[in-house]
Amino acid sequence: MLKEQNNDQIKSCLLLLEKYFININDPIRYQLWNSLDLNSLSSPDRYLKYYGYSAYYRDPDYYQPTVLSIIKDSDKTYKAFISFSKCTSQGIPVVSAIISVIIVDVEGELKVTNTLLYNLEKYKWQENIRNGITFRTSPKIAFESKEALELVKFNSTISDLFETEPLRFRYVACSTFEEMQKVRGIDFDLSAQSGGIAQTDVDNSIIYVSNGKLNYFHEVVHLYYYQSYLKTNCYSEFWNEGLATYLGGSMNQSLTWHINQIRKTMAFKKYDFTDLENLKSIDVLDSTNMSYVVAAILCRSIFNKSGKSGLEKILLIDSIEKSYDLIQNELGISKSQLNEYIKSEIEEQ
Ligand SMILES: [Zn+2]
Prior knowledge:
10 strands; alpha+beta
């Protein structure tokens, strides 16, 4: 009897998810969502949207959601595993991600619930709030006040620079990459298998770190860049990463450290820094991304020359052509001079 009741509930969960995916493009989908999440997150279904481009664009070529299984998690709670997959033109099936979401019985009605918020409470992640930053730390790590205050200070410095109020955000400190993925319900992500220290969910103002540190600055800059993007509609990944690396370092190391890393490899490797779009594909060292470092060097030069007004100009760049114009206008360096300029910046540090 009990088993049948469970089966009925699981069928109802399936129907709920089906309804959700049919309506994923419509705000109406939030009627199927736990209202507590909507008070706390702007985009509680961020990862379902992010990995489910198929449903988002209603494009059969994108990744399609499939409910793999639904299990009972506790008395009134179910957990659903959803894969996003497609077939390549050669007919090979590819799974891009497997995401888990929680379905909870709210006063007799099943509602979809955000996995992060659910897990933080279920596994008793510590909460400490400092100057508008809500730190949530894994039970496996200690809350380090000193590091938290360094982040508060950095947030205040960056807000001055961007001439805005210090941003309020969540900072989720995990002990490993696996824990960082699991706590927000990413059970598998094809694009993230190599790891990574930190990520930012700009829609919900949440920073995730996997190294257990409370003072990972780089991601904070991305939050400010995103706020600027909302105002200007100008976005450039190159300058976004450049600013974050210049102001906040990368992979827990300063810009100077990364420049030194590149200089060491220049003794036996030849680089060409002219094509800004192609820098990503240059292989330096696991720890150092060439595109981030070159963009950060350019940000440093522009700041040294023009200060805040330089930042305002960087924030208006949304194409690679405009990037070359900015470098020419701000630094007097033409595209053909760029390679020599970057080389000298690296060698002379
Ligand atoms: Zn970044």
